[in-house]
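Sequence in, structure out.
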Amino acid sequence: MDRAALADFLHARREALHPADVGLSAGPRRRTAGLRREEVATLATMSTDYYTRLEQQRGPQPSTQMLAALARALRLSVDERDYLYRMAGQAVPDRLGGADHVAPALQRVFDRLSDTPALIISHVGETLLQNPLSVALLGDHVARDGWGRFEAWRWFVEPATERAHYPEDDRDRQSRAIVAGLRAAYGTLGPASVAGELAAALQARSAEFAGLWERQEVAQRFADHKVLLHPEVGAIEVDCQVLFTDDRAQALLVLTPEPRSEAEEKLRLLAVLGTQQLAPGR
């Protein structure tokens, strides 16, 4: 771990960002060039004291989880992320299979989406980011640990929860699409990748998955028209639009209702319900 180089890099990247770059308001009395330390800490979901100690060359060696959070908070490019990991004395994640780093271009678009559900997923179906409306509609997948962050795992191992979001007559189609998408990732990343590990784990846990895996269907389906179910507001009809990174390793999914439709009204109601549920003391 090169404490001095790490501290200098964090300081420089923090000062290079403007509040608007990360979806924050500058406010009328800002004197700091770039972001404040407490703003970076909030974006990275860590304490201000912890982040301050890193910039002052007196913090502990950051874990890979902390580094991933800092890379997202500071909107680092892949090359900058790799440098951050090396200065912290950690192994650099695989560029395609390592899904803990959100591409800055997708992050910037994502930061501006507040009135419609949006999420960023990896090539293997791991949920990397969700906005509040996506959490209210689909549940908080980013907060999950391990395989629970992956759609295929939740769909086949935790069907009672995950499949409740879809009408019963659409679940077979969704099952095949999820397996075909994982097969596509497996073909790109190989059997020794996270896609291979996930496929092996699912074959051991789900006979349904194992049967579909044997079909050898390969496809990536993101753009789609679908109906999603919510226990309080009912069925919501949306179009799923997708924006990929250049290497297609990550995708930003945006769920939009027809303008002036019943679905649009339901999403507005869900936004209010989600805010109330997240309010302190509720």
